[in-house]
Fold this sequence. Notes:
Blueprint: E1 3-6, E2 13-14, H1 16-28, H2 36-42, H3 47-57, H4 64-81, E3 84-85, H5 89-98, E4 102-107, H6 111-120, E5 129-132, H7 133-136, H8 143-153, E6 160-164, H9 167-176, E7 179-183, H10 192-198, E8 201-203
Parallel strand pairs: 1-4, 1-6, 4-5, 6-7, 7-8
Antiparallel strand pairs: 2-3
Amino acid sequence: xxxxxxxxxxxxxxxxxxxxxxxxxxxxxxxxxxxxxxxxxxxxxxxxxxxxxxxxxxxxxxxxxxxxxxxxxxxxxxxxxxxxxxxxxxxxxxxxxxxxxxxxxxxxxxxxxxxxxxxxxxxxxxxxxxxxxxxxxxxxxxxxxxxxxxxxxxxxxxxxxxxxxxxxxxxxxxxxxxxxxxxxxxxxxxxxxxxxxxxxxxxxxxxxxxxx
Length: 212
């Protein structure tokens, strides 16, 4: 293990219920519903792609900028004032840092949002880099995302690990040749059996990574 890629939402911070409810409430206010499958799919998209998808899929009348602003204000408030760390997050990052591993973030969340909890909770000193759908140029539902990360750091895929709660992202990373570790999150419990079956490692708590 030379490189360890951590997802952010649902992995290091407890935020997936917020993202899920944000989308559901947004559409509910417009008398629209969203399927669980689409919600899982959107978890691999950044905000711009998600809004673009929702606008096209539901034929929303508001402009893209209007929709973006509505989401943006709520998200900044959440990460600044309400988000909480997952149990063991700080300890496990420190653990791997002390062992000389390269620790980076691989997230669908915009960088300006991701930086808020990293700085707020002191994670920044352990996480060396933030890789997002926006700055990598592709989504986490494609193996290419993880190939690009490994190439960026000059580390072979077989020596790189991904810790993520999204079964879609884990599938893509596994396809790319990374070692995948699925972590349980209450908001993706419907895919937990798939995660356990498809990945070489699955954990309920971040501190369980010490045993891998």
